[in-house]
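Re: that backbone. Tokens:
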């Protein structure tokens, strides 16, 4: 069952039909605030009929032959596999160059593709780089100019801010930031959502701390805090339809009026139970008041991100967080009544030493000893350097070394009775290639899909391309996918972050290693 939290237009006279697709199953699509918020923008347009389409959609209201535009909302690099599968499902040519006048225009947007669209360039007619308003403007333009031939439309679309048309090569594309006059929040409550009937509201966008590896903070500059009263009003309205509220933001507890927002939810919880959840918290911002509110609102666990095990490494990555702050936060969580914490950590940073890895074990052991009976689960991932961050030109650590570090950590964490959940080094290598590759990987990706789209297919097809001298080895490509001998980066034409800001931060961390 779905509940629309906005008034749909019932008397529309649409000029074009749009499929807005999510390359995953419906439950994940209905949990994606970015996907649903752009769907709402399109749905409110007088000129656009828009339909949601998922990887597991069985039927559609609008036949593919009547669709003018298909947009994909992508969150992760690996989403491209499902995009290809969905295009094949509906018998749409996979490459832009293979589509004709009667085929729909295919576009995509989302954080992974916004940072570096180059590996995916052959699949899309245009790419929406930036935030929601640029997508709406270009689709509105297509609706008003449907009479134009395909190439004429693309010629005009390329002049829009935040839009890249790959067939015209590299040209400066300015990233468009939305003016957030209203909080972005769940427009449709669904019992099929992964977060069943949960109202998600973005109370801020970006993060002023700007850790050197963090795409979410660098790609969303400047940090924008939403108006407090509008946030409270939105939550109040949502509570008429659901009792589940989730606060979203990379720096969520850093909102200037965060206490006021939490107090409002706590007051509502006194009247009628409210289930509150919050995205990952900075350990230096989580306090007793927040944890106690989470407990009162039904939460048993929370998540904090510490990233590195040593203070030395946290300084290098610009995670300004001391061991003492971590100790205090975990103790505070325990005393507030939470059952446990999930702690995000990473390895593979520049100039990482064995002592930094050992420091993570020591930290975990101390936390365990100081908080008897409190559940601690560590999540571990490897650094995947991202475009438009200070670590964009870092040589990723090789897979053998990373695997050895993970095996060491698993062994030592097991000794002290702490659960460690590491990411897959091999999948991380694939993501690292997709994150910074400077050429189209269309032929490779299509072949991977033909072979099943699993990790084995990725590795096997890569070996075949490597033998043909098309690619270097997978591990070499993961470490540095592009030619770094030039004094530039391949995605520099995407004007997302001032180069001088990135270069300044690079000089800063290099002085510490």
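Recovered sequence:
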């Amino acid at each position: 069952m779905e509940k629309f939290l906005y008034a749909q237009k019932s008397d529309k006279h649409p000029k074009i039909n749009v499929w807005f697709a999510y390359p995953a199953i419906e439950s994940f699509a209905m949990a994606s605030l970015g996907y649903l918020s752009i769907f709402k923008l399109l749905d409110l347009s007088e000129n656009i009929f828009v339909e949601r389409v998922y990887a597991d959609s069985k039927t559609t209201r609008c036949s593919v032959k009547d669709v003018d535009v298909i947009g994909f909302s992508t969150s992760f690099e690996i989403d491209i596999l499902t995009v290809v599968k969905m295009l094949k499902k509906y018998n749409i040519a996979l490459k832009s160059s293979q589509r004709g006048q009667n085929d729909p225009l295919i576009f995509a947007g989302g954080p992974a593709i916004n940072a570096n669209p180059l590996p995916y360039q052959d699949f899309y007619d245009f790419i929406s780089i930036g935030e929601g308003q640029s997508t709406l403007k270009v689709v509105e333009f297509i609706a008003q100019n449907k009479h134009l031939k395909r190439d004429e439309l693309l010629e005009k679309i390329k002049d829009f801010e935040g839009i890249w048309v790959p067939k015209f090569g590299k040209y400066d594309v300015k990233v468009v930031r939305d003016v957030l006059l209203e909080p972005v929040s769940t427009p449709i409550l669904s019992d099929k959502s992964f977060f069943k009937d949960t109202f998600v509201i973005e109370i801020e966008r970006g993060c002023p701390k700007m850790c050197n590896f963090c795409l979410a903070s660098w790609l969303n500059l400047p940090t924008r805090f939403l108006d407090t009263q509008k946030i409270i009003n939105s939550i109040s309205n949502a509570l008429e339809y659901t009792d589940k509220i989730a606060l979203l933001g990379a720096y969520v507890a850093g909102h200037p009026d965060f206490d006021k927002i939490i107090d409002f939810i706590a007051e509502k919880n006194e009247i009628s139970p409210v289930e509150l959840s919050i995205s990952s918290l900075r350990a230096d911002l989580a306090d007793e008041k927040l944890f106690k509110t989470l407990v009162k609102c039904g939460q048993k666990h929370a998540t904090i991100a510490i990233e590195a095990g040593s203070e030395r490494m946290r300084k290098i990555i610009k995670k300004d967080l001391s061991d003492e702050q971590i100790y205090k936060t975990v103790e505070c969580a325990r005393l507030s009544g939470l059952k446990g914490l999930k702690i995000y950590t990473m390895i593979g940073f520049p100039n990482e030493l064995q002592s930094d890895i050992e420091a993570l074990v020591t930290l975990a052991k101390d936390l365990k000893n100081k908080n008897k009976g409190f559940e601690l689960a560590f999540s571990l991932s490897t650094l995947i350097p991202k475009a438009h961050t200070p670590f964009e030109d870092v040589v990723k650590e090789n897979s053998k070394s990373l695997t050895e570090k993970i095996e060491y950590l698993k062994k030592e964490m097991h000794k002290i009775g702490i659960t460690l959940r590491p990411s897959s080094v091999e999948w991380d290598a694939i993501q690292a290639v997709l994150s910074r590759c400077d050429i189209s990987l269309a032929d490779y990706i299509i072949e991977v899909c033909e072979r099943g789209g699993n990790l084995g297919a990725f590795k096997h097809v890569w070996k075949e391309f490597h033998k043909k001298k098309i690619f270097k080895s997978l591990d070499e490509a993961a470490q540095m996918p592009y030619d770094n001998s030039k004094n530039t980066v391949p995605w520099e034409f995407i004007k997302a972050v001032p180069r001088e800001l990135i270069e300044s931060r690079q000089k800063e961390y290099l002085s510490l290693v």
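The CA atoms of residues 41 and 196 lie 22 Å apart. The chain has two domains: 2-174, 197-438+481-503.
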